[in-house]
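We emphasize that the prediction below concerns an isolated chain of 347 residues; any contacts that depend on oligomerization or on bound cofactors are therefore not represented. The input was used exactly as deposited, without trimming of termini.
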Amino acid sequence: MTESVAPLRVHVISETARIAKETGVHTAFVDCVNLLRDSPDFEVIVNGEGWGDVLHSHTYGPYFLWKGLRYRGRRVFTAHVIPDSARGSFPLWRLLLPAIRWYLRGIYSYADVCVAVSPVVADSIRALGAKTEIIEIFSFVDEDRFHPSAELRAAGRKRLSVPEDAFVVLGVGTIEGRKGVEDFIDVAQACPEALFVWVGGRPFGAMTEGIARINRRIRRATENVRFAGLFDLEEMPLAYNAADLFLFPSLQENCPVAPLEAAACGLPVIYKDIPEYRQLYRLPYLKARDTAEFTALTRRMIQDRAYFEEGCRISRELLGQFSKGAVRAQLLDLYREVHALSARQTS
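Result of the prediction step, given as a token string:
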């Protein structure tokens, strides 16, 4: 008779449950919780009282430091951000960078295992000299939530007040310099035949880099640009399905979930050509070096149906690298290893 194995109790925490819910980090946290809850191998505690076998944090604030006190030897931290993530995100980021490096090195070292969501993140943790074990586990996309749907397309276009015959180009992210919002506006100005919609807000308010400059650009933007504000995570499938093309002009990323969600909803995705993606993606992806290339590719998507279909195919194939099942198996192995090692050290 096979002996049953008790499920691991995993305590998953994230300060984004209280602030910054519109960020990709919060989406990754919610997806992680749902992923674990879908498996009989896990019992999940979320941001609550009570204790688990392993602590897994997605954020690096005081809540992680406090909760982690009782999880010595069993602390797992997913590193979604690195020091370079501050570039173009906060005012005076250049002056703050030494302090950010010092703080993140301490956070990484506080964790017994750091989950790096991309090779660039793993390299950054090592470069800082953090004393921690590093394992690479990519972000994933929940294709049960994000999928193509004619019904969601109709509802999304109604939500955004978009005509059915419009070609809609979507951008998603916080409205800050690092996310390439100004490039998005420039492409829109060069492509008056399409409607450009940006979904996202400013979770850090006045502390957002370039807030005055970007506000001026928004006020002066052409009529074919709309800023739709924040959408709850549950509403994001509406936004993606309402669009025809997804632009991701962000200047720095690690393992972004927005373009994966867009791809899962059937959209072709055009990325900014940055070094991070060359290390992250194993298959080809559409990319542009500058506004001129974004504009040329966008126009070709509008005018050339065969090229549009090719873009959709590329998106579908790229998703295979970020499957839910593979990530669940990696997390299970990680949690079991951490828990077993801690038990041996305390016995």
